[in-house]
Structure formats: C-alpha cells, structure tokens
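B., you asked whether I could sanity-check this one before it goes into the benchmark set. Here's the sequence:
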Amino acid sequence: MMLVLRQCLITLTRGGKALNTCLAKPALNLERPLQPVKFARLLIVKTSSMGDVVHMLPAVTDIRRARPEIQIDWVVDEAFAELPLLHPGIRRVLPAPLRRWRRQWGRGLGQELLGFIRLLRAEPYDLILDTQGLLKSALITRLARGLRCGPDVRSARESPSAWFYDRTYAVARGRHAVDRNRELAALALGLPPAADSLDYGVTAPPAPAELGLPADYMVCLHGASRASKLWPLGCWLELVRRLAELGIKVVLPWSSGQERERAEAMAAAAPGSQVLPRLALRPLAGVLAGARAVVGLDSGLSHLAVALDQPTLALYLDTAPALTGLLGKPGRAVNLGGPGGKPMPADVLARLAAMGVISPAAVQDPRVKKGMT
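And here's what the prediction gave me:
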C-alpha cells in the first residue's frame, strides 16, 4: 500500500520532480545523538491513536522546560487535532485526515492530499521528529522540510520506517511508551535525559455550562475502539447501580449510536445519572477535568483523564497495560485486568476505595447510601 501511495503522490505533483526529490532514498542513517544545537522550529509527527498522542505530551513538556524558545508544531490526525493544543507548548497543529482518507479512497482524494502536502512543506523546520515509527508517519516525516529524525530499525514499530529518516536513534524496547517518547526526544534534540517527574502539561477549559453538570460527579467511559476491549454491559449496570446507592452521580459520554444506547441503559439503571450529548474533544476534556474520578477502558479518553491529573481507573480485558497502560502519579492512575481477565464490579469499587474516591466502609456495606469521602 505504501508503494501505491508513493506513486499516487508523485503522480499528483506536476511532473513529480519535487516530490521525487523528497522521497529519494536518504543518506546512510547515523545512529548517534545530536550535540545540543541552537534551533528554533520543531515539527512532531505523531498522528494517532488518541492514546499514542497523549503519550507524547510529557516529551513536549520536557522540551519546553529545557528549550523554552523552541516553537513546536505537530502533525496529527484531524480527529485528534484539538488534543495537542491543550498543551501550551504547541504553537499549531497540522491536521492530517488519514483515517478519513482510508475510508474515502478515490473520492476526490487527490486535491485534498496535495493540499496537505503543500501545508506540510510550506515552512521549513530545523528538526522533524517522528516518534510513531510507522511507515505512514515516516512518509509524512520524509515529505516535510528539515532534518528528519526517528527511531532506528530495531526500535521502530515498523522497521522499514527507519529508511525514511536522516538520523535514527536506538530506544530500548520493553519500556512504557511515555518513557520511550521522552528518551527519543532527548536523544534527537541533544537534551539531558528526562527527569523522573512526569508532567503531561495539559489543561482543559471548563465544561460547557449548558451541560448542567452536577457539582460532584464521576465519569464512566464505556466505549472502546474494538469490541474485545469492552466491559460487559451487565458489569457496567451493576457498577453504576452501586455508585448510585452511594450517592454518586455518574456522567456518561458517547460517540456512536451503539455507545449512546449503552449509556442510556446505564443511566436507566442508576437514578441521577446523566447522558451527555455528543461532544467534541475539547469540551469533553473539560468534563473529564471537572470529575471526581474517571472509570474507563483501554481507550484514549482514559489516557486523557490521566493527563489531566484526574484519579482514573482503566479496565483491561484483552490487552496488557505494562507498555501502554495508564501512567500517572502514584495512586491516581490504576490499571486493572489484562489479557484473558475480566475485572468484576466489586474489584472496581475496591480499587476506587483504595484511591480515596469512595469510602472503604461504603464498599464493605452496600446499605450505606453516602459513601463519598
């Protein structure tokens, strides 16, 4: 598919000469860190998914703290364009509608694709950093103007992507994605190793007043990118019933018709719960930021809740959280479950009590109606 896309891009450009030049095989990659150099403009390439984009945010904080004069732009899928802008260190976002292009291949794609390439190449950068390590992100990196950097062939998620970079760096596998992003950024920019402290650096605007949210509420993120990640509806119903018994109001976002039906079923089981209208990412971030706590699944929104420093519990059913799970302050980001496991509502309540979200006594005695600490 990458060869087809490359040929398509060349054909779309008049004569193909300029694009052939930027897609030409680069010189031999140099696997060594750059020495600290003075430069002003950095382009980050991390297009998706939402969780992966969130995992890059601490590296932005590191860069801005070490080099506050650097202007940082970010190429990201248009579906997540609002997310990097929650970080004050991002100057602008270059939205790439990659997912939409996949769905609409051939429907007027040529002109829109060419427009994105022109946007990408409109301004030169001192350094372009691909922290995704996929062929699609490497191609975008190659098309941009500047010194192109990324993970080496042993570190990239798709090894051939290293062929597109001018400089590559070895980043140890077996570490959390947040740590790998921070290490790669430090190597490419010639910065000291990242500090032990973790700061996603994002803030969210207040939730829209017209939502009429209660003063104190918990958010349940019941949606996920695929069915194998979903917690059974019966488990959600039992959890929200118990939370309602404890006097906790539950707020329920959704992004599809199926998720809306699930949210409405959960609200019917828990008096006082509220089903939100469909929200864009920025106002939804405000909802998360105002919550007492968040219970979610293996999804980008759960990672965003952690980035906003909210007490967050994520339930894992078919993926292992060790390398890509929630990573936050101790006691405020909890991963529960894993491949082949299914956490039960009682497990969730017990963890929420351990996090200080609800009273341990209330978990032990379901007759207690006001269990919030």
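One thing to flag: The chain has two domains: 2-189, 209-364. Otherwise nothing jumped out at me.
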